[in-house]
Amino acid sequence: MSHIVIADLHKRYDAVEVLRGIELSIPQGSVLALLGPSGCGKTTLLRLIAGFEPLEQGRIAFGAHVMASPTVFVPPERRGIGYVPQEGTLFPHLTVEGNIRFGLPRHADRRRRIDEVLALTGLDGLGRRYPHELSGGQQQRVALARALAPNPALVLLDEPFNALDLDLRRSMCEDVIGVLRNTGTTSILVTHDPGEAFAVSDQLAVMQSGVIMQCARPETVYWQPASPAVARLTGAAIFLPGHGLGRTATCALGALPLHDGDEAPGGAAMVMVRPEQVQWQADGPGVPARVVRHSFRGDHTLVGLALGDMRLDLRMPSLAAPPLDAQGHVYILGACMAWPEPTA
Ligand SMILES: Nc1ncnc2c1ncn2[C@@H]1O[C@H](COP(=O)(O)OP(=O)(O)OP(=O)(O)O)[C@@H](O)[C@H]1O
């Protein structure tokens, strides 16, 4: 399989258009993370790629082979795709090996392949256990091993670690994506968690209401989101009223440069920076500010600053937080984004 290209994809359930012109291009061996709020159409998109649903408009092609269009429909078993759904999809009456064997063709050297995928997914020695004798994380590894066993060229991961707690989920996800990278398998990971998406993807596609709003390298999506909505969906963001002119936007935090290649809208603008760009110093350049509030959060403290009439919460290491009433200056590290001020 080579490049996966999805063009102008539309899908409707009754009167509701759930996918509205999806365009994606996924190079062979790369990882695409699909991030978006609940109900935006992520699972529907995976199901169309897997061939579990027909499409009404558009095209899905793997290299030169069209898999789906209004006139072509290659059935799921002939697409060479592994699907790892959300938790709870193992056959409870089969052992780990039995679950993995299920997806393998009869003529294959099944014993050897089962041993290979057990080793690949870190499940050595667990082949004779039943699903209820495994932890949640181990069960999801079995689901991955089962998906990988037939050597698919594309693996679709639909929030497969949702049931695990945050730390385990992130480390598990990195492990699993590592396995997929080592085997040169192209993968699409659906997730609600921007941190997980940033950590593992080559491309991050942000989706809302059936539309891909931006698809780019994770760093680009984070620092240069295509819209205020993308900024909010990918992390905390500070929005300030201001003015744009050429490569600079001016707001309560001063005159800020725009990112390379970006141009500010002329006139009234909505300026965006990430909270960690806001820095405090007792003296030196920057906008004068006074500490008016402290909220201790353990590893960090939210420090409330008053800049004239404006209030701003700054996240600082607890030990470095300036005392209440301290007078100092705030300045911005790096560049900002600016969009035309919404008129409505
Ligand atoms: N078979 C179906 N029939 C009718 N509507 C459906 C069907 N499947 C999904 N939908 C609707 O399509 C929309 C997109 O659903 P989808 O499951 O793709 O979203 P999602 O982004 O994966 O959500 P989540 O993150 O909660 O899993 C939702 O409004 C959902 O109710």
TrEMBL record:
Domain ABC transporter: 4-234
Source taxon at top rank: Bacteria
SUPFAM superfamilies in the cross-refs: MOP-like, P-loop containing nucleoside triphosphate hydrolases
Membrane-spanning intervals of the chain: none
PROSITE patterns the record matches: ABC_TRANSPORTER_1, ABC_TRANSPORTER_2
Pfam family, one: TOBE_2
UniProt GO molecular function: ATP binding
Alphabetical list of InterPro entries matching this protein: AAA+_ATPase, ABC_SmlMolc_Importer, ABC_transporter-like_ATP-bd, ABC_transporter-like_CS, ABC_transpr_FbpC, Mo/tungstate-bd_C_term_dom, P-loop_NTPase, Transp-assoc_OB_typ2
Keywords, in A-Z order: ATP-binding, Cell inner membrane, Cell membrane, Ion transport, Iron, Iron transport, Membrane, Nucleotide-binding, Translocase, Transport
Protein's UniProt keywords contain Zinc-finger: no
Protein name: ABC transporter ATP-binding protein
Organism: Castellaniella hirudinis
